[in-house]
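FAQ: What does a multi-protein file look like?

Like this. Sequence, then tokens, then the next protein.
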Amino acid sequence: MLVIRPIQSSDFAALRQIAEESGPGFTSLPVNDGRLQQKIAHSESSFAQCVEQPGQQGYLFVLEDTASGDIVGTTGIEAAVGLETPLYHFQQNRVMHHSAELNVLNQLKTLTLCNDYTGASEICTLFLRQSYRTGYTGRFLSKVRFLFMAEHPQRFAETVIAEMRGVSNGSGQPPFWGWLQKLFLTIDFPAADHLIGIGKKAFIAELMPRHPIYVGLLPEEAQQVIGQVHEHTKPALKMLQQEGFVHRGYVDLFDAGPTIEARLGQIHSVASSIKVPVKVVPKVEPGQMLAVSNTETQGFRASFSEQARFDEHQGALLIQPELADALQLSDGELARFIVLEKGRR
């Protein structure tokens, strides 16, 4: 069985392996022992805190295969980004250039450096090992964050964002990067990517363009990828769009991938999640595939299974003993669930 739980210090070796597997561009898990240990400690502290409003907390979860004990994926939430270190984006705008004398009206696209998402919550750090990218696992890994957010809304902001990976070429270099490197940064992409990953972002404010950039002046290959996602990211983008996330013109500084946003209470899996008592029964007839969690914080556990069914008549979630044990749930205790997808039977 696959179970989501908060990360622990004993998961360091597994987290480092995942950081190595995730490759360039996955800045939330840099291959840096000190930074990874810091992220684990920060997450443990965040889960332990009594929180009334979002702040510097960061919640990192791991997906454990209980049969083998292996950590096979990660997923995370930042409670409020940009409070300590600014979170920068380019905002896409349009400006009008008009000459009445010449009867000319030009509408031109621009990019402006900004940190408009300061204080927003961010879903992030989603990674699943290749051999587990089947069935409902990826969907669960994305949606399980919304179960936690629905249960603990006071820990998160009204606006929730997700940064989507932008287009890169065969060597992993974003086409958008070249002009920026040549004119402003003069360091290569892996170096900039590494600095972002370890939290050293001061160079952005120091070196990035401070005035709006006319998109039409950029190389054609850079213009074409603005707001576009990497081929491998398209399924994740589609899933979040189905949750209600939209793109309002903000893009990443380096690969120009879109940052999408939604209101916490309007995210489909948050709004549709149901909190009910559980009833442990010997057998549940397979039907819908449910994602189910307990209602704990430090002791948060979640999984997905057909071993659970909502009984409207009893007003209870019927679950089999194996799933109840994995989620550390007993008769009468509360659980929260969402429907991942209707059963195939």
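And here is the next protein:
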Amino acid sequence: MRESQTHAAVREGYARVAKQKTSCCGPTGRGTTTEIDTAKRVGYSDADLAGPAAAGNLGLGCGNPTAIANLQPGEVVVDLGSGAGFDALLAAERLGSDGRFIGVDMTPEMLARARTNAVNAGYARTVEFREGMVEALPVASGSADVIISNCVINLSPDKETVFREAFRVLKPGGRLAVSDILLTKPLPSEVAQSVAALIGCVAGAETEEDYVGHIRDAGFVDIELQRRPAGEMFDFATDDPVISAAIAEFGVERAKEVAGTVFSYTIQATKP
């Protein structure tokens, strides 16, 4: 898939999620689980899901980058692929009135939901959402203390540029805190070319070696990784349309085989 086609497919898929509350990286309430169950499995607490930030929870994440970012009052945080604003509103609670959160997303439908959620939660003054690509961030160089991202960079067809952009935007000493999907081995070619698998946060995923190599090549140091199997994110009993499409394309046994190579990672790094 060419880069422009990949962006178009991702934008269309996430626009559908924003409108219909279907999931990409995890099943939603029409099957055997809910957005809340999905969020708890990937690291969000009951407190996270009980406050105003919960309005932004669409069950899309594969981790909780706000939990590992060590956010401090007054910091500037940039979110790559901010979606409906779940992580934005959680971060805003920690950043306080002197902090600032900038979410970047390329899907207008997600931006509209995020902006509404920020206003309703009372964070319109400190939380901002900008339309843009993670490969060309609409953010000034050296302006952010922290970059976060949650299950988004795997969707990019140019991950090297994403991490170079993150490095550019961070101040010296700035921190990267990412949750993402990585693989223990490369995907079979038919899965790697699948739109259904791409929107399901799998087809764009890379191996740990390649992904961490991009981070290191961008200039980051002190790279730390944690991982856990991500197969539980894919509920093959659900009627979620993304998972159903993948099963229809590959068959349930092939889909389960691929799911066994998928891991959810939390990654931290620093700009010197």
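Q: Is there any per-entry metadata?
A: Some entries carry free-text notes. For the entry above: The chain has twelve helices and seven strands.
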